[in-house]
Design brief:
Elements (H helix, E strand, L loop, with lengths): L5 E4 L3 H12 L8 E4 L7 H4 L4 E3 L2 H6 L3 E4 L6 H8 L9 E4 L6 H8 L5 E5 L9 E6 L6 H10 L2 E5 L5 H9 L1 H18 L4 H22 L3 H8 L5 H11 L2 H17 L7
Parallel strand pairs: 1-2, 1-4, 2-3, 4-5, 5-6, 7-8
Antiparallel strand pairs: 6-7
Helix pairs in contact: 7-12, 8-9
Length: 270
């Protein structure tokens, strides 16, 4: 978007992933991107790319239009208190990545009529492959900006705000769940005779191919599974062994547990 300047407040892992995605996709020039964190030395790689880095949140806000809050939930109160006087109605748009912090809570803290979008991307945003969920209260004009930004960095889905915490478990935490599944598959590959590097390549590419089948065909997983399984075959034997060991149940329980944990990361009266 022409002349758009973006500040990422709290450039930790997810903040840096967003920044890398914005730069790699050429969505924004490095000179129009501002990153802040307490220890700015950890942003040296971005400084070398021409990105504005520092620890002064207020300065970053004053020089930007879109403010991405990528701080931990327990830090958001102090950050909003720090920058609220620099936010301008009709100019700034806030995009919050803070887990479990509601739009109403942010509105109450800043006490200004500024569009607020909640977003939940995942770390694949660094390579333009994020699954990002977005929500707002009143279809704010800021949603168009947020959707355009995150569409350049993967796939977006607009959901109701009460679904944002579950989205954290499924789409954000989910990256780790699927990576652990790929690691397990590669370890199985090693046990049946492949070198670790080859086993990991085979497992990762197979997982990528499986996901691509679902996305391109809009099919249910079982439809694709049926194409691989044959009577008395090796695939169904392996699937049944995994199910007897609790594979699906463990994954479901992990997602539910993560959602419950995410719900409690930030507690404050509306």
């Amino acid at each position: 978007m022409k002349d758009l300047k973006i500040a990422i407040i709290g450039a930790g892992n997810i903040g840096k992933s967003i920044a890398n995605g914005l730069i790699e996709t050429k969505y924004i020039a490095a000179k129009d991107l501002y990153l802040t964190r307490r220890n700015e030395a950890l942003l040296a790689e971005f400084k070398n790319k021409g990105v504005n880095v520092g620890s002064n949140n207020r300065e970053a806000v004053k020089n930007s239009r879109v403010i991405i809050l990528a701080v931990e939930p327990q830090q958001i109160d102090s950050v909003l208190e720090e920058i609220k006087n620099d936010l301008k109605t009709g100019h700034h748009i806030i995009i919050s990545v803070a887990t479990a912090v509601s739009i109403k809570q942010i509105q109450k803290m800043i006490d200004k009529n500024v569009p607020i979008i909640r977003s939940m991307p995942n770390t694949a945003i660094a390579i333009g492959e994020s699954m990002t969920c977005l929500s707002s209260l009143n279809g704010d004009a800021g949603m168009d900006v947020a959707k355009d930004l995150f569409e350049k960095l993967g796939t977006t889905l607009i959901i109701s705000e009460d679904q944002m915490t579950p989205a954290t478990a499924l789409a954000a935490c989910g990256v780790a769940f699927f990576l652990r599944a790929i690691r397990a598959a590669s370890q199985g590959g090693i046990e049946i005779g492949f070198h670790s590097r080859d086993a990991l390549l085979m497992a990762a590419q197979t997982a990528k191919g499986a996901a691509s089948l679902l996305l391109q065909h809009s099919d249910h997983p079982e439809g694709e599974i049926d194409k691989v399984t044959t009577p008395r075959g090796c695939t169904i034997a392996g699937l049944n062994k995994m199910e007897h060991a609790g594979f699906s149940s463990a994954l479901i329980q992990g997602i539910v547990t993560s959602a419950e944990k995410a719900e409690g990361l930030y507690r404050k009266d509306e």
